[in-house]
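Subgroup meeting minutes
Present: P.N., E.W., G.H.
Scribe: E.W.

1. P.N. recapped why we're keeping a running log of single-chain structure predictions: easier to compare across weeks, and new members can see raw inputs and outputs side by side.
2. G.H. added today's entry (846 aa).
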Amino acid sequence: MGPPPSVSSYHPNSVAPSTPFSTAATPFTPRPADVSHLQPSLQNIVSTVNLGCQLDLKRIALQARNAEYNPKRFAAVIMRIRNPRTTALIFGSGKMVCTGAKSEEDSLQAARRYARVIQKLGFPAKFRDFKIQNMVGSVDVKFPIRLEALVLKHYQFCSYEPELFPGLIYRMMQPKIVLLIFVSGKVVLTGAKVRREIHEAFERIYPILKVVRGRGASGGRGRGRGRGRGRGRPVARGGRHGSRRIGRQPRMDIDQQQASTTPITDLDINGDSKPFFVNANVTLDQHIQAQTTNLSRYLATLFSLDLNSVEIGQKAKACALAAAWCRHDHKLANNLLRHRRLFTLTEVLKAVTMLDAARQIRVYEKKLKRLELNKIKPKAIKLGKIKNNIDNLNKLKPSNGSASGAVARHIQRWTRTLTKQELEYFALHMPTEPWKKLADIVHFNPTKDFPSLPWFLPFCFGTSAPAETMVARCRDLTNENVNDLLKEFSIPYSHLKQFKEHLNETSKAKIAAKEDKLDTILWYYEDLQCSPVDDIISERLRDGEQITLPYGKLMERLLLCRMLREGESTTSTRYGRRGARNTTSNSSNQPAHPDKAKFYSDLLPVAQAQLEKIKLPLESPVAVIGDASGSMEVAIRTATILSSLLTAICSAKLNFFNDKVFEPAFVPKTLEDVLSLALITQADGSTANAAGLVPYYNAKEVIKTFVMVTDEEENANGTIADGSTTRFFELFMKYRAEIYPAKLVFISFLSHQHAQGQMYSQFVNANVPDVLQFKFNRERPDLTKIDNLIGLLSTGSSASFDNSLDPLQVEFEQNGIESVITRLVEKQDENSMPMDVEMNKTTAAN
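Output recorded in log:
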């Protein structure tokens, strides 16, 4: 029985779980100059090896050099060598642990040297099962980090107890890496099995750390209140590094606090209502005012953006819920909570935290008063931290409203609607910390408030799940018994993903046959790929089973299938760098491996039908200009697919450029054409964005909307008809002045989600109107964001957005909130995806 669609994902910004094409398979090398010097360096590698014989530890300690053995303290010989400088723990069973190496090669070399020492002592030692168990890396990001801000933004993954340990512990879900993050900017990464995971984890965490960047240099003072607030006394940290000075404690922060520093003052719910849900700087009080002024338009905007696949920030959703509670409109809040995909545990906890800010302020003020009245002078760093928390909670606190008993009772009623399957999914796959925090405020009753799973709340606080439950059963899964248990039980694939390497074809076929929704099988197809699974997918498609995957994900699945059938590598580089290719491989229209992904021809019409339904209100004629320069080598397939899709949807003109402009091999009109063009278009040469615009400028051709698909790394000029050379910005401004004031859409492949791009920045700084930007991650281009891109283009102009907003506003006014939300929830249930698929949707992030 598959997981239900009713619990949506947490939104851990850039730490969202990767999809098959969103994870670089080669070690990540940061491209931008400001990150290239920040590659993590390996500090320690722990490996194990089996020597295959019983050992006399006392004899080894007596005969070997640099060996010590104290069985009363530790039941192993500790042996050290200088080259490479490592330490080995040698056990009587023949098992050996090698630590201290700085590279994989050193670890292997050291383990072999220890084994040779044992052999020379007369033991029949072999060298078996060498395996790297853990890698530890470190990096200094060169700026201070506000740890309280980080723990509040990503509380699902963070543990921070400064009284016990000065660092924040961040448990990343994908890859499974634990990071120790310090206020000084030092980051330690541990838990990796391969070097790539260290680099990938740092690539994911670096944009997040930049968001919670502190002021000034590492360990510096920054703004303070009073003498002791900005500085701490020297504190010994032990070890050979001696002591260091601890800087000002990081400020407590969540989204609302950043917003309060630069609030937007010209918001009008009766005018342009989109900023309430797409701008992070809108405050809770402004949401309250908007709901009070025009509630029907406020709700129509929220759900219109969602229906158009426009990404709505977690803060905006939390503010919408908190504003309803502040206004004592519990009916509205209850109706919002019925929309499980938009309003999840994350939004509920954030909203309650805002309402609880006033109580937390009183707690801190009492604590501060006790410390100030104490005869023993408190440490300045302790006082400074409390004052910082009070300051930031005051910014967070709404002008009215609190986490009252009425609010708590409504949240308790909400938790009573959660099903057993939903709670089991939380218990198996999600951190329990958010539930513990919510329970501390709401004071749940384990039995009454979780009737479908009474043991769930005690489980969150550390109690084991009952032995007969799915949670306990799945926790007992091992590599050895997974196939046997699958013969006995039907276990959802979301619980089996970690054992994918050990599933046999029989188990994979059973999973494909028993999984409730075909979406799950398609999402994880590369994990389950085999001939029996292909047959089951084909049969379910021919039986008319509905596919509810987002269009972008469906495109990604089709590209994966096409690459498998064409013999393209799908594991080494994903959308990454490719070697020499035969660009005529598709000329015969016969796949190299027709036995793979046999359901491809059945899936293609489903996606084609969805493509034909997409309508973009871009002002015609439209021209798409695709970047095929060398700097786009990693993202060229994604860029080509985006360019081709927009061309097919809008009947647009298409060209590509590197140092000069060139036409595509053919103009894509169908989905098959889009995929074919993606496989044959290659990237090389310099980047002359202006070259793509030159043909339209020279011909004085009127184009009303230009779509520029690029990484914005312009490094060459375009040459126009009179022989002069120019960059894109100058040429586009000439085009607007001399030919037509065209609109411009940048689809930008950038280093991270907070980068703006050098070309887009030029237009922003010059206040050029009608310029939009949509961002993709350059190193991990993700086709699943196509839906968000289409949503942005669909709502880019006020006129086009009002066309979808006005009817919904009228419906809210005529039929009432409950009736409309009921319809939207029913529509959501019809088109919902399995919960594990929802959990893996990339919504934020890069």
